Amino acid sequence: MPVKEEPKNLPWVEKYRPKSLEDLISHKDIISTIQRFVKEDKLPHLLFYGPPGTGKTSTILAVARQLYKPSEFNSMVLELNASDDRGIGIVREQILGFSSTRTIFKSKFKLVILDEADAMTNDAQNALRRIMEKYTENTRFCLICNYLTGIIPAIQSRCTRFRFGPLDMEQMSSRLKHVIQEENVECTEDGMKAVVRLAKGDMRRSLNVLQSTHVGYKLVNEDNVYTCTGNPLRSEIQSIIDWTLNESYTDAYKKISELKIRKGLALQDILTEVHLLVHRVDFPSNVRMMIVDKLAEIEFRLAAGTSEKIQLGAFVSAFQCARDPIVAEAE
């Protein structure tokens, strides 16, 4: 049988999605536990939860490929995503119909994968819990969600839960290097670090940022990555803190406003990056606590829909107020 060729224009996220459990780069303890379940033919109902892009869907699809031959896959696996209607009607009809029918492969059970399960209504989840219990002999369920609180306790108690945490920088870097080599991407060391930093443990996001920067600029360096994603450069954030601490209120406000307009930055983006830098700068503890508290207040007000210009004034004021304690501490 000829091997089906992948489309040339496939996004890297799908092109480099792990095909087997051995290809997964993180959560080795979870994967080894699931491999043991599969090997001993004792797979329970599963509940995967954690942030996006951490390998939840890839893991269960790799398990499904290991359990079933390509010819069996479509008849043995039912995958429903957030884009599908998964109200009580679908649970009572499609999922119940799939789960209740016996498989022609007597030794094998069927697999139902419910992605973004925390978006299901409580009525649908309550209907689902009975199906999970009644047809355990015939079907296994894998529920995937970002937030465990979105799943009712009755379903949680029927599943073996695994938390997929954000990937660490080393794991992401090794996978990105493989993609860079395969795609002949021209990437600098600072560009790689910028991609990993902005992804914040989300492998899917890192691949999307890498591909976007490569297509848009050819060279993947720090400046191009930050420009492509619309994030302020680290040098710009350092300049902002420098202005707020060393310039007058009026000059600092004016310079930050001009930078925002020129670069098309939102105050929220600046706050996020400044918050990270505040923890790296050697401020006295009381000053750092005061600044972080003020930044939190400003972020809360922005989320409530207040004027960005007024909150920029509050942002500059927070650092202006910190000047005297910094000087006093130095003396």
UniProtKB/TrEMBL annotation:
Q: Which Pfam families match?
A: AAA, RCF1-5-like_lid, Rep_fac_C
Q: Which GO terms describe its molecular function?
A: ATP binding; ATP hydrolysis activity; DNA binding; DNA clamp loader activity
Keyword line: ATP-binding, DNA replication, Nucleotide-binding, Nucleus
CDD domains, alphabetically?
AAA (cd00009), HLD_clamp_RFC (cd18140)
- What domain of life is recorded for the organism? Eukaryota
- Biological process terms in GO annotation: DNA repair; DNA-templated DNA replication
Which parts of the sequence belong to the AAA+ ATPase domain? 42-170
What species was this sequence derived from? Clytia hemisphaerica
> What is the official name of this protein in its record?
Activator 1 subunit 5
Q: Name one GO cellular component term.
A: DNA replication factor C complex
Indicate the family of this protein: Belongs to the activator 1 small subunits family.
Gene3D superfamilies cross-referenced by the UniProt entry: 1.10.8.60, 1.20.272.10, P-loop containing nucleotide triphosphate hydrolases
Its subcellular locations are: Nucleus
